[in-house]
Amino acid sequence: MSAAWLSQVALPWVLASVMLAMGLSLTTADFARTRRHPRRVLLGTGLQMLALPLLAWALVLLLRLPPLAAAGLLLVALVPGGATSNMFSYLVQGDLALSVTLTAIAAVLAPFTLPLIMGWNLELLGLTISGLSLPYWQTVGQLLMVTLLPVLAGMLLRRTLPSRWLAAVLPGVKVFTGVAMISVVAALFASHAGRLPTLFSFETLAVLMLCLLSMLLGHGVARRLQLPNDSVRAITVEVGVQNAGVAMMVAFVVLQQPAIGLVPLLYGLLMNVPVFLWMFACLWRDRYPASAVTSRH
After folding, report:
1. Confidence at residue 143, expressed as pLDDT on a 0 to 100 scale
2. 3-class secondary structure per residue, the chain
3. pLDDT for 223-249, tens place per residue?
4. What is the pLDDT of residue 196?
5. Could you tell me the domains of the chain?
6. pLDDT of residue 193
């Protein structure tokens, strides 16, 4: 199984299937429930679309990443959260309706904002001088094909399929697409293992810091605004967990630059470390609230 086939064929198809499965899980009621609290939606979207790219730039400058690695990190900061963030929100008993709404908004905006902002990033990094560019409308079309359109198709299918049949099939579809995505990422990791940065590298540090700091940012701002605990958890996940599959697709398929795709690939693996640690801390606090309060005094 060649690396080219994995990145050019398998990755886009599997990514589209994951987004289709997410669409099968969505209803208009999911979005209607958040209308009563528009501030939470605006906060989460603002942190995703504005604060996260700025944080990525701060890390690029602080760690002095080489241009291609910097482009990979900035690309990660521009992609929508995806089904993974919804799964983590569910596991930590966050506001799932808010999480789903933020993911859906990001999926709608990203095909149009990502190519524009990433084009500026490539210019600022000096990569356009060597001929590297991101064609806007071609990128918009490809992102629509693997993100927004599959989500809309899934929502349409949900409205047309019998609810009893859907309830029986959907869990299996989610498991299948999740396993397929993990398998493709693992296969890409194996095929590019020789080119990946070492574990003790600035690229690894940048990936871990981006995930950790973005989670702290989302959590801190939501806490400062005194949002309910379930909304705080949803915003923490949505700001901190990015869809590495979309970033890899842009790097490998659109830009044809595997060197840029290595950082998103690294992110897809290493982001699980801070996310799972935070998730277990949340579950521990829910199970032993008295010990959590005692530990603060």
Report:
1. 81
2. CCHHHHHHHHHHHHHHHHHHHHHHCCCHHHHHCCCCCHHHHHHHHHHHHHHHHHHHHHHHHHHCCCHHHHHHHHHHCCCCCCHHHHHHHHHCCCCHHHHHHHHHHHHHHHHHHHHHHHHHHHHHCCCHHHCCCCCHHHHHHHHHHHHHHHHHHHHHHHHHCCHHHHHHHHHHHHHHHHHHHHHHHHHHHHHCCCCCCCCCCHHHHHHHHHHHHHHHHHHHHHHHCCCCHHHHHHHHHHHHCCCHHHHHHHHHHHCCCHHHHHHHHHHHHHCHHHHHHHHHHHHHHHHCHHHHHHHCC
3. 999 999 989 999 999 998 888 888 888
4. 60
5. 3-286 (1.20.1530.20)
6. 64
